[in-house]
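Appendix B. Extra example for self-study. Work through it before the problem class; the solution is given directly after the inputs so you can check yourself.
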Amino acid sequence: MSAPRIGLRGIVKRYGPIVANDRVDLDVAAGGIHAVVGENGAGKTTLMRIIAGLVEPDAGRYELDGRPVRLRGPADAIRRGIGMVHQRFQLVEELSALENLVLGATPGRLRFDRRAARTAARRLAEQLAAELDWEAPVAQLSVGQRQRLEIMRLLYRRADILIFDEPTSVLTPGEAELLFGIMRRLAADGRTILFITHKLPEVFAVAQHVTVMRRGRVVATSAVADTDPRQVGRQMVGEDLTPPDLRPSGRVGRPVLALREVSATGGRGEPRLRRVSFEVAEGEIVGVAGVEGNGQRELVEVVMGLRQPAGGEILLDGRPCGHRGVRERRDLGVAFISEDRDGEGASLDATIADNAVATAYRRPPLARAGLLSPGRVRRATEDLIRRFGVQGGRPGAPARVLSGGNLQRLVVGRELSRVPRLLVAAHPTRGVDLRGTVFIRQQLHRAREAGAAILLVSEEIVELLELCDRIVVLYRGRITADLPVARVTAERLGALMAGLAA
Ligand SMILES: Nc1ncnc2c1ncn2[C@@H]1O[C@H](COP(=O)(O)OP(=O)(O)O)[C@@H](O)[C@H]1O
Ligand SMILES: [Mg+2]
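Solution. Structure tokens for the complete assembly:
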């Protein structure tokens, strides 16, 4: 048998007291897609950074094609054919896509040979079947386009090992499918792909091998054909994660939120919501299904008072509230989990404590006679950290030390520390690991059973089917279906989201 393309033996990497990689062994065969999965903090990114020459291990052996190597930085790695597509893209926003493609690729060459670059760009785009406006500045490209540009940048540098660190966490389902097509094509061409994700269906859709990491260690590597999602899930969390029963008890009360023929327009006056009408009642989760860009964002914004509707009426507990701002709506009992986690949802520079109380600081018990009590704030934060399982930071630390999943637990905890009248939840589990996802869904379920009305915007069909009492489908700004969940299957919902069925 020939040597694996990549072979790691006993790799160790410590950060102070934390052992990010603990005696890791890994073989990656040449040509194919090898998934690496694990909960937040399992050590996946650290391992990938070691493979890509960005981090030097404290101990262990690293072999390429059976020969030991010691990488002297990412440039050395790319010379040996190893490139990484990072979670945060490394493109220059002001430069064109074409300039970014070749930037830094030919050190020593001073002139930018535009014609040669164009030819190479065209060839790469053809190879990946990915269209791109090469003259546009990167700032104008969508997230998916930027990612494809990053991939082409690596191919331009002749990378034949490509590392993707949670590439789908920033993509819509449609774009993720496009990416999978590209990954399959690259693997069919003989390239070796390392693919990090914590969505198990993605592993079983594209990969041939899967390695599970937990607490810095590799717990298993299997051929995808020899395992199943349940087993991999168990290996990821170290126990059987029996999905909780989230079925509604069906005690639906009076309507809390009502939309009557609500319309909204975009920047150039183009319609984004067209006469949308539906209701959400006490003790009910109404899911808004749809592929991103069909009006979900506008819907959330008009309900929260972040955007003025162009027409129609929004009622909270029977009273028109179209003129009220976000803060007034919050005072009426509206809670909000924003899809924009580190913009609207939380303030990364503020402390965890400030984030925890950001929506409650004006009312008792935290404030007495308008004064904030530091002791109460600290105790409230500690309580929230415990109840909602926020790991990785003390109340006084800035929120940016938290991983995405833990930041979301903090936001969910803040919004659900008391039962809201109405909760608007936009993509609450996007990018959150398995255990966090299960936990957050359970919290939404609890809030419903305690009588909250919940509007849940999600692209995850499983999530919608598992949690909702009713599902409305938003397609091109219109509600094209409003159905009790019992009458919906995954296939039907997928078709409705794609605008294919009535
Ligand atoms: N540069 C760093 N400094 C300190 N600790 C780090 C650093 N990078 C990672 N860690 C820690 O190492 C552990 C593994 O992190 P990481 O490799 O990012 O995991 P994953 O990608 O699986 O979420 C975590 O506890 C994380 O906080
Ligand atoms: Mg990571």
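Self-check: The radius of gyration is 24 Å. If your reasoning did not lead you there, revisit section 3.
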